[in-house]
Design a protein that fits this description.
With 139 residues, this protein is of the alpha+beta class. The protein has 3 helices and 7 strands; from the N terminus they run βαβββαββαβ.
């Protein structure tokens, strides 16, 4: 991989698919995608949100996406899964010390489809604008 960020749908999806392939080829533990703090809806531009949670992120390992979300965000994620029938919520954990939930989505698909889901999951779940910038921060 030669680039690690993108700010339009086609660029993000290509970046995410390439990141999935690189993750698989390297045998890395996981890959992490983060939304640029200046594009995150509940941050003040420095990555810190009102709840201290920071900018949205999604991790991918083996065949599972992992993300944290509020109840409203979880509802949007569940609605989005109708577009991706091959993906399903495997586990929802609600730690006592957290306001939201940690969600694991099982995804058995090719890198291109995983990249599409990653882009849509970030945009829809976290209510991001079409031109949000995302970074592959760990690979």
């Amino acid at each position: 991989m030669t680039r690690f960020d993108a700010a339009d749908a086609a660029g993000r999806r290509k970046l995410f698919a390439e990141a999935v392939l690189a993750h698989r080829n390297r045998g890395s533990s996981f890959l992490t995608v983060e939304v640029d703090p200046s594009d995150a809806p509940e941050t003040d531009g420095d990555g810190e949100g009102a709840d201290g949670g920071g900018a949205p992120w999604i991790q991918f390992a083996e065949q599972t996406f992992n993300l944290d979300c509020t109840d409203a965000e979880l509802g949007r994620l569940k609605d989005l899964l109708a577009e991706f029938p091959e993906f399903r919520i495997e586990q929802i954990e609600r730690p006592e010390e957290a306001e939201g939930a940690n969600v694991r989505v099982t995804a058995r698909s090719d890198a291109s489809r995983l990249g599409q889901f990653l882009d849509r999951a970030l945009q829809v779940t976290y209510d991001l604008d079409d031109d949000y910038r995302a970074w592959v921060t760990e690979l």
